């Protein structure tokens, strides 16, 4: 909105001109940028374009800030990438060390069997040897080095399948525990996570529950899955002794110091929490008392991905840059190819191409032409309504004003992410 005379309004007695543009995030208007001046008719079309460009950048910045705060809230103080990178390095070391120890145990069991005549081995000793060998095999087969990246090796998985698989293994191993499974067979609870690391986090909760019931005469473990709002949850409910009040608030936040000889320090839960948070989830204590504890692993439900934006095939964009020097060429090509038919040209080629064919957007690298303002002038001489977008690695306010006064539609930073560039170019093409 541009008002060239507003002194008659009481709230604008000191101003005679006003310029206001909306700040948008997508289709949502989240605010405005307002400029006032004491002179009459102080703002022109160049000022309007400059303020529009500033509002667009402000919208992107605010959106990024919102996403960053959401990321911190969801994944806690340990950033997802940091946690994932740490687990990747640690798991490689663990796999090597643990695998070697497990192999050594199996070799020793084998040698022991060779040294003792079969008829001389008591049944109880033979049973223990079989158990040791089986445990070593389980350790070796436990996948520690699963894919650990939010981009690679992670896919939607059915939580019910993971839980059922683990439940069957528990039934075989723990015949002294009353195990119960509660799943809704008519629902597919899908989440996006590394299956192997989800199993590890789930196993930690199971191990803690079994340990809590170790001295209890009645051992009952209930495992369930459920959907709550837009989340998928795995529930582990035991009949153990519960979590003492004096450490309940510290669980999942820090290691717990316990008397010498006492089992458990909360480190396992911290590891499980780190794993789950790395994939956007969380672990929380639903309830605990002297009769048992209910722990919950919660993940966002995997929803169908939003389809790619489809634009009319009539959109055409021209990239004006030096293909040998522009390190961002691939990024711009990848983004623009989702929105329009693109052509790449040098300065001279572009000026010739514009005479033959109109373009909806002309994106020019500030370092790929002799003079930006001259290039913009020559483009607008050939195509009056051309939308020229200048891209630069070192934006300045002075340069912004110069190119916008010359008639450029927008002036953007090369360092914008592909998602941000997509938003900018989509707005340009649709405007």
Keyword list:
single chain, 431 residues, alpha/beta, Beta-Lactamase, Heat Shock Protein 90, 4 domains, 5-stranded mixed β-sheet, 5-stranded parallel β-sheet, 15 strands, elongated
SSE diagram, text form:
Blueprint: E1 2-3, E2 17-25, E3 28-37, H1 45-75, H2 80-115, H3 123-141, E4 155-158, H4 159-173, E5 178-182, E6 190-193, H5 195-212, E7 220-228, E8 231-238, H6 245-248, H7 267-278, E9 282-289, E10 292-300, E11 316-320, H8 329-336, E12 341-345, H9 347-356, E13 361-365, H10 372-382, E14 388-392, H11 397-406, E15 410-413, H12 418-430
Parallel strand pairs: 5-7, 11-12, 11-13, 13-14, 14-15
Antiparallel strand pairs: 1-2, 2-3, 4-6, 7-8, 8-10, 9-10
Helix pairs in contact: 1-11, 2-3, 2-7, 5-7, 8-12, 9-10
